Amino acid sequence: MTRLINRYIVKEIAFPFGMILFVLTFVLLMGKILQLMDLMINKGVSFSDIALLMFYLMPSFLMFTLPISLLIAILMGLGRLTGDNEITVMKMSGISLYQLAVPVMGAAVAVFLLTAVTTLFLVPHGNLASRTLLFDMAKQKASVGIREKVFIDDFRGILLYVEKIPLNGDYLEGVLIRDNRISQEPSTIFAHKARLVSDPDTLAITLRLENGSTHTVDSSFNHYRKMDFQSYDIRLDLTPSFADPKKSGTKSSTEMTVSELMGKIKNQGVTDEAIREMAIELNKKLTIPVSCLVFAILGVPLGIRGSHRAIRSRGFSIGLAIVLIYYLMRLSGEALVETGRLAPFIGAWAPNAFFGIAGGLLFYCAAREIAPGTLLRSLFPRRDKASGDGDDPAERRR
Question: What is the pTM of this model?
Answer without folding.
Answer: 0.72
